[in-house]
Each structure stands twice: as C-alpha cells, then as structure tokens.
Write a structure and sequence with these properties.
The complex is a heterodimer of chains A (293) and B (188). Chain A has 293 residues and is α+β, with helices and mostly antiparallel strands. Chain A contains eleven helices and seven strands. Chain A has helices at 4-22, 61-73, 80-87, 93-111, 141-158, 163-180, 196-216, 222-235, 240-252, 256-274, 280-291; strands spanning 36-39, 45-48, 51-52, 78-79, 124-127, 130-133, 138-140. In chain A, the strands form two sheets. Chain A has a four-stranded mixed sheet. In chain A, strands 4-6-5 form a three-stranded antiparallel sheet. The N and C termini of chain A lie far apart (49 Å). Chain B contains four helices and three strands, in the order βββαααα. In chain B, β1 and β2 (27-37) form a beta hairpin. The chains are: A alpha+beta (293), B alpha+beta (188).
C-alpha cells in the first residue's frame, strides 16, 4: 500500500513533469532538471540534483535567512552593507561582516558540499561588493508560477491556432500555476518586512489567476469553479468576484438554494468588514436568480 | 540606542477599486482597503482613509511602548509624547502632499481638498482629548500613567473608527432615501 508521503511525492513529480511539457517552448524556462529546485510557496524547500537539502545542511539560521533573502531579491545584486542592514540591523558593521561571511560560506557548503577548495561557487555570485544568486541553474517556483500565467495570458491574447485550443492550453497553464501556489510566499518569514512586498504581489497574482480560471471553467466544470472560488475566499473573504462566480456555478449545477446562500454570505461579510452593500452587479445577479425559479 | 528588528513597523496596504455606473449612468467608485502590520500580523479592513490612519497611529504608539518596557513611567510618557509629535508632523505633511497632488490633478475640486483636511483633523482629534502635545495651547487634562494613556488612546481610536463607519452608513441611508420613490419620505 502507498503511504501518504509517497503519494505526495508522486503528485509533485507529476506536477513538475506537466510544467516541463507546458513550458517546453519557453527559452527562459530552466526545466525540472535544473541543478537546484527551490520551493517558496507554502513553505521553504530546496532540492539539489533531485535530493532535498536538509534543514541541518544549512548549518545555521543566518545562512538560511541570507539564502531566502537572495531568492527574494531575485536578479538584483545588493551591497554587503545593504544586506546586513536589511537582515540583521541589530549587528554592528564588524560583527555583521563576520556573520555575513560565515552565512555565505554555509550556503555554499549546503548547495555544493563537494566543491573543491579555491573553486568559484556555482550558485552564489559576487560583483565587487555586491552579492546575489545565479539563477541560470535554478528552478524557482515563483518564477515558474509567473511563467505559466504569462503563457496562459499570451495564448488567450494571441489565440494562435483555433480558439478552443488556446483556451484549453490557457486552462492547463492556469490550473498548473494554481496547483503550484501551495500557500503564501515564505510563510516562515511572515513577520519580516523584506519579504512582505513579494508575498503580497504573489498572493494577488494567485487570487486573480484563481478567479480567472474559475470563470473559464464555469461551462466545463462548475464544481471546480466552486472549489476555486472557495479557495479565493479562504484567502480573502471580501473578494466579491469570487462570490459571483460561486453563485453562477451553483446556478449551473441547478442548486439555487446554495446560490442564494452564497449571496447572503457575501452581503453579511461585506457589511461586517466594510459596512457596504454588495456591488450592483452582484445584486443584479441575485435578483436574476430569484426571478428564474 | 542600537536599531533592532522590533523597532521597525512595516505595513502592507491593499486597495481594491470597485467602479460601476449608477442608474443615472454616472460613474461611482468605491475603495475597499486592507492593511496589515507585518511584525504583529494585526490586520484591518477599511473604506475610509481616517480608519487606516488611526490603525497606523495605534500601531506606532504600541511600538514606542513595546520598546521601553523597563523604563519608568515618566520616561515612557516623554517618549510617547515625542512619538506623537512625530506622528503629528507626518500627518500634517501628508495633508500638504495630498492637497498638492489634488491641486495638480483636480484643480477645481475644493470639496475633495476639504475632505483630506478633515481626515487629518479627525486623526488628530483623540490627542486633544487625552492631552498629547498639539500645536495649539488648549488646556489639557493631566497625563495619567503611560500604560493607562495607551489603553485610553486605543479605546478612543476604536470608538472613532466605529463612529466613522456609522457615519458612513447613515450617509448612505440618507442618500438611498433621497433617491427613494415619493411615497417613502425620510423621517423628520
């Protein structure tokens, strides 16, 4: 019998294989065989050549901290002083400098345990006093998440081939992107300001993608639209578009009572949180549902 | 004093714009907002700018208090006053920036400029009530212990937000009644 961990691993593998297929024509996509795979959405994990880098391999918390900061800064290279000031403002320059060097060394050891002495590190880069990561060999979930969404948007805009084909491809890309969004960006760093902007940006992107996908699936799979709308509302309970999609999906399933109950919930939440009425569009939909008994 | 992580207050502010047409075909806009204090994870939803200013003010006051738990009461009082002075300065310059922006973009919108000024006046109001330093020389009540003041301040800020929300609702009800059919008349 399969255990839960094996099933989860298999699902993850299937997800990555389907991403490889969907983004096969994208030159900037590094491919699942990239030397380093990094997951930041819903929890932090790193795999080196397919094997997960254990928490203990980082040696110290500051190394993990610095690596996650590099990931967040993405292709931006920052001066050592700026990095120390953002990450460890309580340290004076001398101690900050020492801790930075130790942390950088620990990152290099964790990512390249067999690197020969005096060989240049493969993943961490230095330009003068500026530091960052070389993303050429890194499969980063946030980057792939965005690439999938861009590919879907592009397909819908250009409609290369026939419309149905473009729609099917877009739905596949959006679905995979949504599956990749396991939760907030680096939840371990929720209370640190350097990660907040990226977390907010990605959450909004995920909410918009889930809403778009739920709408696209209304005809084909209203049940999936309901599930996606519920996922949106679990993240942001005042996302009014999601209530409307859920109402329409229930109507498509001929479940009028649940459509009405969804409207009532929307009304209650908006009243409690903002003291406002639902939008005229939502009210009109509700009245339409009431009329079509 | 060395800067530490707990001396930092970051806020993530999200505005969602809702735009629609009223039955007369006129555009209507509503802003729905959400603010999160990153370090404390406190969050708050709002539709009025006053409410978000209050939330920030409250969080900054708490930050000042949290950074000196072992100081004596007099020292805490002084630090709080300093903190409020800074907030006042910020809020005032914020009005100027906003007004300037409005002047540039909507030159004839005196009503909006008045609204911005009113928002800041409302934000300042609780300080006059509890006796924090203000530019005016109005008599103020004697300060109580810093912790009591903080609690009192927090209660006032909460009350103020509730009043703002209620006022908003009353305004909307009045507007709805004004456009209601003739047989429904507002109560005198």
């Amino acid at each position: 019998m399969l255990d839960v961990e094996t099933v989860a691993r298999q699902l993850k593998q299937d997800l990555i294989s389907s991403i490889d297929q969907l983004l096969v024509d994208l030159p900037t996509y590094p491919g699942a065989k990239a030397a380093l795979r990094v997951q930041t959405l819903g929890g932090f994990h790193v795999w080196r050549d397919g094997l997960e880098v254990s928490q203990t391999a980082w040696g110290r918390e500051k190394a993990l901290h610095l690596f996650q900061f590099f990931i967040t800064m993405h292709h931006q290279y920052l001066h050592k002083e700026q990095i120390i000031d953002r990450l460890w403002p309580e340290l004076d320059m001398e101690k900050g400098d020492r801790d930075f060097k130790v942390a950088l060394n620990s990152i290099n050891k964790a990512l390249e345990p067999t690197r020969e002495p005096r060989h240049e590190p493969r993943f961490t880069l230095r330009y003068g006093l500026a530091y960052g990561l070389d993303f050429a060999h890194v499969w980063l979930d946030t980057e792939v998440f965005e690439q999938l969404i861009t590919a879907a948007n592009q397909a819908l805009l250009e409609r290369a081939g026939n419309l149905d084909q473009a729609r099917t491809y877009a739905i596949a890309c959006y679905t995979t992107a949504v599956n990749l969004y396991n939760g907030d960006y680096l939840p371990e760093r929720r209370y640190e300001d350097w990660s907040s902007a990226e977390r907010e940006r990605l959450q909004l992107l995920a909410l918009n993608t889930m809403t778009t996908l739920a709408e696209l699936l209304l005809d084909r799979s209203p049940l999936e639209s309901v599930r996606l709308a519920q996922r949106v509302l679990a993240i942001d309970p005042v996302w009014e578009d999601a209530y409307r999609i859920q109402m329409r999906a229930y109507v498509a399933q001929r479940n009028r009572p649940l459509a009405i109950r969804t409207y009532e919930k929307c009304r209650k939440v908006l009243e409690e949180e903002f003291g406002v009425e639902p939008l005229p569009e939502t009210i009109a939909l509700y009245q339409q549902i009431l009329k079509n008994k | 004093m060395m800067k530490t992580q707990r001396d930092i207050a970051s806020f993530v502010l999200r505005f969602t714009q809702e735009l629609w047409q009223d039955p007369q075909g006129e555009p209507r806009v509503e802003w729905r907002g959400h603010i999160r204090h990153v370090q404390d994870d406190d969050e708050f939803r709002f539709t009025e700018l006053t409410e978000v200013m209050n939330f920030i003010q409250q969080s900054l006051m708490k930050l000042t208090m949290d950074c000196m738990p072992k100081e004596d009461k007099m020292y805490q009082d002084k630090a709080l006053r300093e903190s409020f002075k800074l907030w006042e300065k910020f809020a005032t310059s914020y009005t100027e920036v906003m007004t300037e922006a409005v002047q540039q973009t909507v030159k004839q919108s005196e009503v909006f400029q008045k609204q911005v000024t009113e928002v800041v006046e409302q934000v300042m109001k609780p300080w006059w009530l509890v006796g924090w330093p203000t530019p005016t020389s109005e008599p103020r009540p004697a300060p109580t212990a810093a912790a009591d003041q903080a609690q009192l301040m927090q209660t006032l800020v909460t009350l103020q937000a509730q009043i703002a929300a209620l006022t908003n609702k009353v305004d909307k009800l009045e507007a709805a009644l004004a456009t209601a059919p003739d047989d429904i008349q507002p109560m005198q």
